[in-house]
Amino acid sequence: MLGLLKWVTTHVDLVVAFGLVIVALMVFVASRIGVLPKKGVGVVIGALLALFGVFVLQRARRRALQRQAKELEDRIKKRDEELAAWRDKYQASMAQYHAAGAKLDQQLAATQTELALTLAENRAEREKIDRMSPDEVFEWLRKQPLRTSTPEGANVP
Predict the structure, then answer these.
(1) Cα torsion at 52, 54, 56, 58 (round to 10°)?
(2) What would the pLDDT profile of 54-102 be if each residue is shown by its tens digit?
(3) What is the largest CA-CA distance in the chain?
(4) Pairwise CA distance, residues 150 & 157, whole Å
(5) DSSP readout, 29-58?
(6) CA-to-CA separations, 32 to 22, 42, 110, in angstroms, rounded
(7) Which has the closest alpha carbon to 46: 64, 24, 71?
């Protein structure tokens, strides 16, 4: 019984067509034996044709909806693939961003360390100069190499 029900649900169009043929045969036999009035046969046949038309319309609509659903699934699949590609690009960009941030943090720490060392040297040098007499400062400055604010190797006129 379960197998028959499964077959009927998968072949609905055949079942409906077979049912319409049986109803048409019953109407034909009933009109031949005189049970149905002669003018009512056209109405019954028209009703059967209307049922068949509704069935055909529903079948066409179902196919169109299935086609539309397939197109939507394809579009969703394509969008998911694009989304995965964008997600990969985003993760790569974030990795580069974090690497650049870490490099800048290292440069900042090195610069701060160098600044602290320079300030300590300047402070020590200033204390040394403060303890000297003016003549000693003059002699010390004369022995020092000339310091310029231009980088080494700069071509200054």
Answers:
(1) -150
(2) 777 788 788 888 999 999 999 999 999 999 999 999 999 999 999 999 9
(3) 147
(4) 12
(5) HHHHTTSS-TTHHHHHHHHHHHHHHHHHHH
(6) 15, 13, 109
(7) 24
